[in-house]
Amino acid sequence: MILQIVAVTAGLGIAIAALGLALLRALRRRSIGVMLAVVAVVTVAATLAGVVAITLEMVIDGRPKNIVLTVVAIGGLVGLGVALINARRVVLASRRLVEALDEVPPSGRFTPPEDPLPAELRTIAAALEQAYERLRLGRERERALESARRELVAWVSHDLRTPLAGLRAMTEALEDGVVDDPGTVRRYHAQMRLEVDRLSGMVDDLFELSRIHAGSLKLSRGRVGLGDLLADALAGVEPLARAKRVRLLGEADPGLPVEVDADELARAVRNLVVNAIRHTPADGTVSVRATADGETATVSVLDCCGGIPEEDLPRVFEVAFRGEAARTPGQGGGAGLGLAIARGIVEAHEGEIGVVNEGPGCRFDIRIPLAGSA
User: Which of 93, 135, 139, 180 has the most crowded CB, counting CB atoms within 10 A?
Assistant: First the structure.
């Protein structure tokens, strides 16, 4: 008897399950509520079919049979009703989520529905919120980069026109014979050489910045002493400091090994020092120090520029930022790329760069890991 009951119920269950799977496959592109309803119907139908078949054929007769069938029918209807209500709730929750997506404002900030959602839909809503936030931040960065690019083009165009106009005027004067005395000709040639060197420096800066932004800056790392690197960098800017009558001081703690690209990091330090010299008045002092703090080496450049307005501090390392007031460049200033290049080089070394106002000017800090601590 038991085997017969098992065989009948299993056969009916398999048949109904196969029919339900075929129906689910046909409805796989329909609403999740429809699929939940199909699952509920299949479950209830399989249970009812087994109970009804056994009741009718072999277990119960007479009035008890009618009672059992009535109870089973009512239970099936109740289960089906609960399943349909639950499916409707899931459908309404998914619609609320879709409506929240449709209502995303132009700012790109996604707000999940206020009404509670099932756990899975809550997970999807949280993932959507994070994705929209990343997209929003990406768009903001893109707009900032586009603004910086336009500002860079404007600054560079201005800086290129000035030396080119001077070169053209001097060249035409020499060609037309307007200037022919040897002293003036030599002065013109010297000035033309200076302007060409300035243009070459600007082109080099633009090329370096483009490599940094394109992610193609390749570092040839090697173990060097930070004190030696600092001495080489200061030696390269000593003539500029003498010409500006600015005192240049440098000191380094002993034993500061770093694993860096010496040429690139020295360029970053030179850019900071040159920037400090240009904005320090005559008879002022630019101090450069290299110290160790735990597993980090710090290079600090302190100048006498008069300070940077607090609202400008976050923008100092932006491309083509020139600043205001005490930091407005004079004749011979660069294209505003030095600090942006320095930041790119330092970040390529997994380091940090920052600036704060201190004393008579401001202090730029480069922090990089000591060798063996990264």
Answer: 93
Strands 361-369 and 296-302: antiparallel
Query: What's the order of all strands across the beta sheet hosting 352-358?
Result: 247-252, 285-293, 296-302, 361-369, 352-358
DSSP 272-325: HHHHHHHTSPTT-EEEEEEEEETTEEEEEEE--S----GGGGGGTTSTT---SG
Q: Tell me if 199 sits within 8 A of 163, measured CB to CB.
A: yes
Is the pLDDT higher at 147 or at 172? 172
Q: What is the DSSP letter of 122?
A: H
Go through 26-58 and write b for each residue having 16 or more CB atoms within 10 A of its CB, e for each that does not. Answer: eeeeeeebebbbbebbbbbbbbbbbbbbbbeee
Kindly list the distances between the CA atom of residue 102 and the CA atoms of 54, 97, 98, in Å, as whole numbers in the listed order: 53, 9, 6
Per cent of the chain over pLDDT 90 is 13
Q: Scanning the structure block, which residue is given the tokens 């020092």?
A: 273
CB 287 within 8 A of CB 305: no
User: Cα 306 to the chain's mean position, in Å?
Assistant: 33
The dihedrals phi and psi of 199, each to the nearest 5 degrees, come to -65, -40
Backbone angles phi, psi at 76, to 5 degrees: -65, -45
Beta pairing, strands 296-302 & 285-293: antiparallel
What is the Cα–Cα distance from 361 to 339, expressed in whole angstroms?
16
Residue 302 in this model has a pLDDT that exceeds 90:
yes
Q: What is the pLDDT of residues 61-101, one digit of tens each?
A: 566 666 666 766 676 677 667 767 777 777 788 888 888 88
Cβ 276 vs Cβ 301: under 8 Å: yes
Q: Quick check: helix, strand or coil at residue 1?
A: coil
Supply angle C-alpha 64, 65, 70, rounded to 5.
95
Predicted confidence band of residue 330 (pLDDT cuts 50, 70, 90): very low
